[in-house]
Structures
1.
Amino acid sequence: MMPVIERMWRTCWTVTVLSLSAGRCPVQGAEVKVWNGDYVPPPRPLKTEVTVGAYVFPGWYRDEGKGDYPYKTHDEDSEWRQVAKCPKPRPLLGFYEDSLPEVNDWHIKWALEHGVSFFCFDWYWNAGEHRLLRTLERGFLKAKYCDQMKFCIHWCNHGLDWRNKKWNRPLDEDFRTKALVEMSEYLADNYFKLPNYLRLEGRPVLVVWDAKSLIQANGGAAGFAAALDAMNKALRDRGIPTLYLLAMSNSQGIRAGGFAATTGYGYYGTDYDSKYEWRAGRSVPYDEVVKHYESVWRGITADPVLPYVVAIGSNWDSRPRAGDNAAVISGKTPAKFETMCRNSLKYVDKGLNLAIIEAWNEWGEGSFIEPDKEFGFGFLDAVRRVFGDGTGNHPDYVPTPEKIASFSVLKGDELAKASEVEKQPYLDPPLSLRTVEWKIDEPLPDTKVLRGWEFDGASSEGWMPYHIEPLAVRDGVLLTAVTTEDPQLIVDNVGVTLDDMGCLALRLRVPDGVSSCELFWTTAAEPTMSADKAFRFPLKGEGQWHTYQVAKAAEGKWSGALKVLRLDLGGPGDKLEVDWIRLYGKQR
């Protein structure tokens, strides 16, 4: 008699395949078939006009005893268990172990047949200490069809449990020459020498998450350029051309530091004129995010610092990781994703001819194009239609239930519980209607000024600079210029109760290209500055004086006694002029 778990899995899988084949899932022009062969059938790669890649999160093998180090780390804590606590997502391959070559061959086959021709693996390395290498080195690189799929490295040089401490930031010395050369040697010996490593202009591609920290740790662009020379020498000594560095942002100094191009990861959010705003615990419509992506692409390509690899987003729903604090995109469909992909074609750099999708398999963040039970191959078919000659019918093969069960990290009772959870309703959080309102060049309130800074004398009246020139006051105007990334104007001991405040008003003159200001705050009850205590409002960066009024109703952490205000605006070289800043009371 068939075990209960296997019967349950077989029944669920049969229903899934029948649903996809019958067209009850939005998979256009594809027939889903179960493959009964001993191994994954060979891929039939699709030709595309644009070279398309996808980021890969290599963390789906983790379980007891499978860490990369002798000590226990998060490598042994399977994130599948977090995903299984939510009704979705549910991959077609189940809760697979992605360090298995056979699992990687299914990924390679599905990707190549839908126009995705390279994987960009998230890669965690800090001064010789590494995380999550097993998927790439024991899975993908050992896969039968690996040589048909290009790959490259996305160096995630951000905080993690380095030195066995939770979310510890790498130190500056970890980003300096000695550590960078050691990393380059490892990359060259293990990846760059392989014939399927992605190259541009004949050079191995390395994507860097945080270019800014690399440049700062080396004392600026010139210092990092010297470190890059040492890295490239290590490559040349091994017969490998110099690096083709891709920065994940337009940070100051990337050109002078030796970066060759830029790209992005996720631009999830909404435009300023949207009636929705990106917030934890709430959702925004997918259509609004599609509009926002095009706004970002338009801004980047209007005056590019370097050639740009178009970054496309799939979705965001981080409830498996963040629970009730997750930000969510609602109304996800393959058709809406296809619209985003089609919009991206206008912004593809003609020289690079590259696009990259976030992501293949970020199941914990809801960002994936890998087939799942809800949409089947719908997202991959959208890529196929937009970027390749992928119209018309084509078969999509999937493994048998027995194969899928053999791939699973979760077993027995865990699978049974996940199956029960899957049946539960999973409603999106409420839509996040915009709570921040602003006016530009409209009459000022006729209410009391609770606190004001007029700059009528020679003093900055308590405002302090960070990453900007020392503040000067002349003719009743506060003057400064931005010197580096992350410029800030800060004032402490504000002493205004937010329940009494109607709006912040200020009169500014900023140059072309300065399109927004980000306002951070702390209160007596919330004394630490953080990303969740901030909001943006638009500016007219045209070198003229404008008056701005910004209002936000007291709620959540924007409540109580205001202590610190911080205004972040401008970029290196921008001159900033402030006539006055005032906190007006509410209308009574």
2.
Amino acid sequence: MANLPAPSLNSERDVLELCNISKRFSSVLALDDVSATFARGEVHALVGENGAGKSTLAHIAAGSLHPDAGRILLDGTELRHLTRHGARNRGVTAVFQEFSLVPTLSVRENLYLGREPARAGFVARRPIARGADEILERLGFSIDPAAPVGSLGRAEQQMVEIAKALLEGPSVLILDEPTSALTERDAEHLYRIVGELRSEGVAIVYITHRMEEIRRLADTATILRDGHVIDRVRVADVTDDRIVELMVGRAVSDLFPEVRHRHGDVALRLENVSTANGRVRDVSIEVRAGEIVGLAGLAGSGKRHIARACMGLERVVSGTIEVRGERVARPTPRSMIRRGVCYLPGDRRAEGLVMPRSVRENASLAALDLPSLCRIGLLRLRAELRSVRGVVDKLRIRTPSMNEPVGTLSGGNQQKVVFARALLRDMHVFLVEEPTSGIDVGSRAEIYRFIRDLCEGGAAVLLVSSDLPEILHLASRAYVVHRGQLRAELEGDELTEVAVVGNFFEVEQPSGAIGVQQ
């Protein structure tokens, strides 16, 4: 481990300084003598795998956790016994992945919770309404300010958290995976706001797994691994590959495995399929045993709805679906599972996992009707535990026990629990949606190897991904989806970044006709 010198301080620019921070949780040393400084007018990325210590360091900076050792300085003044409330009062605000919202209160009430303006001893409603409306309009977030937060989706709740953090004009803003639940359009609004805050002199601490965000937003990056600072770099001075190597300790070429596709019989076929909601229109695709086929497209293109229609999660109003040569008249999740079709959703928190329940229960959810696990309507607990332990070991899921709530695991290990279900039944077709969303590079490599193993084991894999390198490196063929329709099918040498991206958009031709941007 490199012994790095303490960060050099610039009293005119450095606003937040973390000096020699250490933090231990039971037997795990989460941070070991970590130092970092965050400057005014700069976006500083904290980069590393899950478990590297990024979020722990951010929670300490925001007053949510107390360090076991080290000092926190704000504008040169040491802050002792810092709390979340105290940090916010000093201009340090944070948006973490774990929301701090009250579901029964409105958006406006959540934005001002704990800092309500008062008049004659009563809460002043008009200033709250005015301030909430102004911050939402500035951010460009289309949210009903009077709506109860509990009625909003996760993406909208993420917007409320961001608006809450920006309400009083912070001097230090900490953003922990802020775009993980946002659409591309809303993420663009956030990027614009980050740029404005930087120009206004705000110090921004930005935690992300997305290399494109680091490259687009960050001036400086601190790379953490296993609770240590590995390096501090100017983003403009290093390549993406170098950042990844620092994060995982190995060459980026090791990230994507070589896949040996062995095309067999058609395992999944869609012919002229359309859905009732109009998200899928006249789509025809096929996936063979022993191959990975990609579905590429921008957010909102309809690519994920094709997979959901295959699984019976969206109603098909025309066209046919066949699984291993058998036509499925009315696909439902239960009937498709029994035909050997496995759907791995992209949003593991909302659709993939029951977060308060254990690793054991989540892994076995789709296999509870199997005779090996259930007899005369009673679950065989020992058999379930034995089966789950086998797949947990195979996927190298890091968990203290099989009964650990899955919500306490890192994002990468949560995703592996979703994949664990695929190994507890005899599955032949895998509909894999955004398999590495919000997980670190090391876990990505393990997920990619698992997908490769499925393919080389004879399974048919439909890979739905917004991460173009995943499609290019793993798939033998890819369909490009635009507005619910197939725009192109690319294979072999045709499957390139230029060809895929060139089919993402429509542009207006001089004659007024709509054509494909090449």
